[in-house]
Amino acid sequence: MKEDTKTKLNQNQHQQESQQQMCRTIQVVSTVDHVDMSPPVASPVVVVPSPSDDLNLIPPLNFAMVDNGIFRSGFPDSANFSFIQTLNLRSIIYLCPEPYPDANNGFLKSNGIKLFQFGIESYKEPFVNIPEDTIREALKVVLDVRNHPVLIHCKRGKHRTGCLVGCLRKLQRWCLSSVFDEYQRFAAAKARVSDQRGECCPASE
Amino acid sequence: MKEDTKTKLNQNQHQQESQQQMCRTIQVVSTVDHVDMSPPVASPVVVVPSPSDDLNLIPPLNFAMVDNGIFRSGFPDSANFSFIQTLNLRSIIYLCPEPYPDANNGFLKSNGIKLFQFGIESYKEPFVNIPEDTIREALKVVLDVRNHPVLIHCKRGKHRTGCLVGCLRKLQRWCLSSVFDEYQRFAAAKARVSDQRGECCPASE
């Protein structure tokens, strides 16, 4: 227990130090003129200095960009909607069999985002039981640029999403060891810092 | 020792299973017509079925896409050059003080890639000692779309690269806990699978 407390204290202290470091750095950098730097579609590197934390955007758990127009994450909740709006998604690929929550369906409807659901039961590694035909159909949706920008997500953005992304990497001729490195980076991810979200990141709504 | 051996065997077995799973899946999916799916610039989701492993591309250690036109990785070596060529880079941001190797300089020259070097000594967390003015200058280069596509790299793609990407995320108004989650995903990455690269991924040159 003592060690846990100590660890958490150190972690918080480190967060504070890093936060101060980042904020000091950002404060100066944000004076750079970004007018010609971020056209909405061509480059979504939108840089908007935030006056306070309560304006921060909260990406879904395990969020990452996979390739141009392709994103991955864990299950998005209402706290992530403001962030997801910045992606200008055309579609979402949802890899769980459970029905999509009303709140998420409402968000998709109001933002004109198409939902592709491929119900894959929850498996951990080895994922030899993931149905090939389902992954195949999901890959067709991922590869069709008419669906881009697209967000691929399951529950935690680890195994089902990682399997689909891994198949995409193989199509992109990625070396298998690199495919597994990327898979492991997300599958092994601990959400330790996110557990403390309430301390530094109130939802924007 | 016995346990290590057993673990490695299981890992290899899992790799084999996963490899078979992926290859079976890919074999069918790669019959989809991709002609209109991958214009070289707008969407680099280049899908080229690979007849054999020796045509595989090898991304640098810890490679990932940060945002449109922005990539991150560990130090690229000659085995990664074929992959890096697919990114059509305009520039590279190199965050170590050590001089860039001749082989890498030659690759940059022959591919018209501009090198921005910001010599930051190797630090682990907490990275309070990373010089603010250097990070500030590096961020200006990252944010200037005239340098895109750009690859940010240090030695292992963990701490120095992670600090610069973390500052970018703060400018993008990412919630701090998500910034730290992303930082940790790379800082904590073990290259276990890559250690076995020789077994499944010969360099393409």
From TrEMBL, chains A, B:
It catalyses: 6-diphospho-1D-myo-inositol pentakisphosphate + H2O = 1D-myo-inositol hexakisphosphate + phosphate + H(+); 5-diphospho-1D-myo-inositol 1,2,3,4,6-pentakisphosphate + H2O = 1D-myo-inositol hexakisphosphate + phosphate + H(+); 3,5-bis(diphospho)-1D-myo-inositol 1,2,4,6-tetrakisphosphate + H2O = 3-diphospho-1D-myo-inositol 1,2,4,5,6-pentakisphosphate + phosphate + 2 H(+); 1,5-bis(diphospho)-1D-myo-inositol 2,3,4,6-tetrakisphosphate + H2O = 1-diphospho-1D-myo-inositol 2,3,4,5,6-pentakisphosphate + phosphate + 2 H(+). It is an enzyme of class 3 (hydrolase). Its EC number is 3.6.1.52. This is diphosphoinositol-polyphosphate diphosphatase. Keywords: Hydrolase. Residues 1-21 are annotated as: Disordered. Belongs to the protein-tyrosine phosphatase family. Atypical dual-specificity phosphatase Siw14-like subfamily. Residues 62-205 form the Tyrosine-protein phosphatase domain. InterPro entries: PFA-DSPs (IPR020428), Prot-tyrosine_phosphatase-like (IPR029021), Siw14-like (IPR004861), Tyr_Pase_AS (IPR016130), TYR_PHOSPHATASE_DUAL_dom (IPR020422). GO terms for cellular component: cytoplasm. Residues 11-21 have a biased composition (Low complexity). The lineage of its organism: Eukaryota, Viridiplantae, Streptophyta, Embryophyta, Tracheophyta. GO terms for molecular function: inositol-1,5-bisdiphosphate-2,3,4,6-tetrakisphosphate 5-diphosphatase activity; inositol-5-diphosphate-1,2,3,4,6-pentakisphosphate diphosphatase activity; phosphatase activity.
